[in-house]
Design brief:
Elements (H helix, E strand, L loop, with lengths): L2 E2 H5 L10 E2 L8 H15 L13 E4 L4 E4 L4 E4 L1 E3 L4 E6 L2 E2 L7 E4 L8 E8 L4 E2 L3 E6 L3 E2 L3 E9 L7 E3 L2 E3 L1 E4 L20 E6 L8 E8 L4 E4 L5 E5 L6 E9 L8 E9 L1
Parallel strand pairs: 4-12
Antiparallel strand pairs: 1-2, 3-6, 5-9, 7-8, 7-10, 10-11, 10-12, 12-14, 13-14, 14-23, 15-16, 17-22, 18-21, 18-23, 19-20, 19-22
């Protein structure tokens, strides 16, 4: 704003000049200059406000989904800030005794190890990591007429009953391709295969039933039958297939329950 010396000093001394002047620019102290520079830097880097390093507890590295050959070791790892935060691992929301490090290792996985794993950093307040799924496969049975791949994947949880491509269902389980990282759920056929058979072999669950489904990626095609736990379909070696199980019952099946199946490539 342009002001006059007259405006500033009219009450203090007689008018001696009518010349318009610009007041001197106020000087910023060093702290204020640093704040302005930081704000400008944050603005140019895409931040609307000053970007500061977060001081609250948080996970720098999250655990990742893994698919492991039966009997082989499996490991989940996290990195947390601040480093002194106390850690505790859980499987399907149940505390794993003694699992209090950033690295959790299973020396030899079994079907009982299939589930969802997470880590909690207890600081103030405690913070949970993402869930990470442990699935298993194998041993792979290679025969002249077929290749049979046993698989097991944790159940992601039930939802209200709804109508899907294979009839009514309460939950969906998709099986990852064995031994691939990062995980992929589309399987290429074994060499020489002319058809594939997916069979749900889950046992030990009262009232359990399901519909098996094979989804062909390109051209898109779904092969399944309502309420039937096994499906066989012709395959093409130029595309990939997604093996899935639509759980029909029970409606209260706990999250993390192991759902087992066999994927057979038939020659």
């Amino acid at each position: 704003m342009v002001v006059t010396r007259l405006v500033y000093f009219a009450a203090l001394r007689p008018i001696t000049s009518t010349i318009w002047t610009m007041p001197s620019r106020p000087k910023l102290n060093i702290a204020a200059q640093a704040l302005v520079l930081a704000l400008l830097t944050a603005s140019f880097s895409g931040c609307a406000v000053l970007c500061l390093s977060p001081s609250s507890t948080h996970f720098i590295k999250q655990p990742e989904d893994i698919s492991v050959l039966l009997g082989q070791p499996a490991a989940f790892m996290v990195s947390v800030f601040p480093p002194e935060a106390k850690l505790q691992w859980y499987k399907n929301n149940v505390v794993i005794p003694g699992a209090t490090n950033n690295l959790f290792v299973l020396s030899s996985v079994t079907l009982a190890d299939v589930g969802f794993y997470r880590c909690t950093a207890s600081n103030s307040p405690p913070v949970d990591s993402n869930d990470a799924a442990l699935s298993i496969y194998g041993p792979i049975d290679r025969r002249p007429s077929s290749v049979i791949v046993p698989v097991a994947q944790p159940y992601p949880g039930s939802a209200p009953s709804s109508l899907g491509p294979c009839g009514t269902f309460v939950g969906l389980v998709q099986f990852p391709r064995p031994g691939v990282s990062p995980q992929s759920f589309y399987w290429p056929p074994e060499a020489g295969s002319t058809s594939a058979r997916l069979t749900d072999v889950t046992t030990g669950i009262s009232g359990y039933s399901s519909s098996a489904c094979l989804f062909q990626k390109s051209p898109a095609r779904r092969n399944c039958s309502a309420g039937v736990s096994s499906v066989t379909a012709p395959v093409k070696t130029t595309t990939t297939y997604l093996p899935s199980v639509y759980v029909v019952g029970p409606s209260s099946l706990p999250r993390g329950t192991a759902i087992s199946a066999t994927m057979e490539w038939l020659r």
